[in-house]
Amino acid sequence: MEHKLELWAGVECTANRVQDTYFDQIKWSGHDARPEDLRRFAELGIRTLRFPVLWERCYRSSGGFDWSWADERLALARELGIEPIVGFVHHGSGPPSTNLLDREFPNKLADFASQFAQRYPWVKRYTPINEPLTTARFSGLYGVWFPHHRNDRSFLQMLLHECLGIAQAMQAIRQHIPEAELIQTEDMGRIFSTPFLAYQARFENRRRWLSFDLLFGRVTQDHPLWDYMMEYGIEEKQLLMLSENPCPPAVLGINHYLTSNRFLDERFEFYPPHSRGGNTRHRYADIEAVRVGGECIYGPKELLREVWQRYRQPLAITECHVGCTRDEQLRWLYEVWQSAHELRAENVDIRAVTVWSLLGSFDWNSLVTRADGYYESGVFDIRGGREPRPTALSKLVKAINQGEEFDHPALDTLGWWHRADRVLYPTSVPDVGIGQRPSSILRPDRSRQILITGSPGTLATAFGFICERRGLKYRLLSHRDLDIADYQAVQACLSELRPWAVINAAGYVKVDEAEKNPEACFRANVQGAQVLSQICAAMGIQFLTYSTDLVFDGQQNNPYNERDFTAPLNIYGQSKAMAESRVNEAHQEALIIRTSAFFGPWDEYNFVIQSLRQLSRGREIGAFHDQVVSPTYVPHLVDASLDLLMDGESGIWHLANNGVMSWFEFACEAARLQGLDTQLIRPIDSANVLHMARRPKFSALGSERGQLLPKLDSALDRFMTECRVAMR
Questions:
Q1: Which residues are paired to 652 by β-bridges?
Q2: What CATH number has the domain bearing residue 567?
Q3: Number of domains present in the structure of the chain
Q4: Residue 60 is part of which domain span?
Q5: Looking at the structure, do residues 300 and 240 belong to the same domain, yes or no?
Q6: How far is CA 510 from CA 514, 572, 573, 693, in A?
Q7: Do 484 and 544 share a domain, yes or no?
């Protein structure tokens, strides 16, 4: 094929409006104030970038447009050899002076586009409006975004205005840049259904082509949706404007997500309440097809082939992202990239795959209707506060751009969308799903695994559950299986098993008893961690071990970060501080995670479960009001730890849920969420309780490297949902 498959990239840049509030992802990610991000992208080999010069952001109510941001960024992109694909509207409705129902919307957008083209005549590629059909559905049919309409007439009028706006914008641009190309994006998810709802699936599967059909000039009286559009008041003369003056894209950009394919089912009882909706004839559940029982038959490869057969126009995947754990992100991008190669071998003209989003995205779990700060990381993670941190995806992107083979143990396993545990609703339905995995990335069975010490302890058990959930091969080892302080035993074990990573979740954890048994404590916590790190370093194995908030003395009143001075008050804390030092010396690439105050669904004896069990029986409990900690939900801790391990991070990290409270406050909050009587919780002064080991009064953990765990209230909500411990 004439064109080489390229890897494009993009920054999530949605600037949507909800009521009178504009939500701006470029500001949320910090990209707005970081021109140097472009240099980071260029260092990964990115040469084509979906580039937001958004109408809403440039608009000035006093008149005219402010081009200063675009001037600086586009000049830098040009200097770096990055070709922009400029977007003007990304899930938005324009500035306050217009909206998608405004008949002048197309003309106003065309004026903006004309002024842009005059200012930047060297820019050749454009996406004037991203996903017009999706935006019209969310704004005109579902009422999610401004102007919040919920009817077919508004939906169709919005879509028509968007397509006219695209056509008129391109016409205005071409008056100054005749060779300008339209790269038109859309989410083309397919609809499946029960036989009863086949009529609705058929309608939606016709409707999903509507934005492309309009731009290609195909919506005439012979179009299957012509009568539908006439029924809801669309003017024939407006349709003729596009059918007589089509604006076919040079490249059809497909934004496909794992949740794009949907399944419709009239049987409500199988599905959660939030999935329930319907049409004017019937009520039904609308659910992600990938989560419904049946064989996987329809994925990105099948979708692209279908688009190609319909339009015979060059294609690109213009957004490739999955909001999931790092291993699943690697699997999805790698799979889509290989799918594109396989389709090119079938003479399907696919030009590029676009990694999305470079800087992650915010609040798409609520369809960007709330500013909750829910973040999904991407090629970079922006939660560090100083500069974006490259994730494992950056290594994959760089390898692809350099034409190098990429290998990672995560790729030994199928993505969750191919595994049996993808099914949440095992109903008896026709086959639905997301497609067969491309044959070119099916690998022979490998034994690369993570070795986890400390079974059957709380942390090791959690790693077992979550590695299983994430499709990561692992092996749990107890002290009986392996004495981690025995150098020869560890060396023999690692030589035989050859893990790609070792996670040390073992150790002496009884804080008070350590005062009486310091030798046992130091042997397990110091010598064991040191031996593991030494042998891992010699064998080139990644190593992760855990430390504690008890390495601090509690003398400060704000959360401790990674660089704060350690001064443990007890033997246990001293052993962990010494272990940190020994591990750092032995293995420079080791990852050391300090954490605090575990609670989780797989441990019967943690503080929360014990407290709730007593309260549910009507018994009074006591909790310290003068010891402040950062409670940590174990599943969150394990997921973030595995992500950091895959990212190749090293050194000391603090991982705890974002929250600071005393044990008394913690107990009260958990009781409140469970609907139990908080009056049964008695505050205790720690000075009145005799402990063998001194504890710091304040040991809350913060981080200057990145607050990776969610807020504590989110952790408690998830705990209450997942735990289901009988409070009897």
A1: 592
A2: 3.40.50.720
A3: 2
A4: 6-441
A5: yes
A6: 6, 8, 11, 10
A7: yes
Tokens of 130: 């991203």
Task: Provide the 10 A C-beta neighbour count for residue 422.
Answer: 19
Of 89, 181, 103, the closest CA to residue 134 belongs to: 89
Alpha carbons 575 and 508: distance in angstroms, whole number = 9
Q: Same domain for 485 and 396? A: no
Q: Which of 156, 58, 166 is nearest to 107 (CA)?
A: 166
728, part of any domain: no
Q: Are 601 and 665 in contact (CB under 8 A)?
A: no
Which CATH number is 424's domain given? 3.20.20.80
Residue 440 DSSP symbol: G
Positions in the chain whose pLDDT score sits under 50:
444, 725-728
Relative to beta strand 350-356, strand 315-320 is parallel
| pLDDT value of residue 726 | 41
Say if 366 falls within a structural domain.
yes
Question: Which of 548, 541, 653, 552 is CA-nearest to residue 586?
Answer: 541
- The sheet that has 276-278: what strands, in order across it? 191-193, 262-265, 283-288, 276-278
Segment (H or E) for 522:
helix 518-522
Task: Give 210-257 pLDDT, tens digit per residue.
Answer: 999 999 999 999 999 999 999 999 999 999 999 999 999 999 999 989
CB 462 within 8 A of CB 599: no
The helix/strand/coil state of 705 is coil
User: Do residues 229 and 270 share a domain?
Assistant: yes
Report the distance separating Cα 714 and Cα 703, nearest Å: 19
Beta strands in 446-554 (DSSP E): 450-455, 474-478, 501-504, 542-548
Query: Could you tell me the CA-to-CA distances from 248 to 167, 183, 252, 309 in Å, in that order?
Result: 9, 9, 9, 16
Bridge-based pairing of strands 375-376 and 389-390 is unpaired
Q: 10 Å Cβ neighbour count for 235?
A: 12
DSSP class of residue 32 equals G
Does residue 292 sit in the same domain as residue 394? Answer: yes
137 and 118 within one domain: yes
374 & 463 share domain? no
Q: Are residues 431 and 554 in the same domain?
A: no
- For the CA atoms of 273, 279, 282, 286, what is the dihedral angle to 10 degrees? -40
pTM attached to this predicted model: 0.94
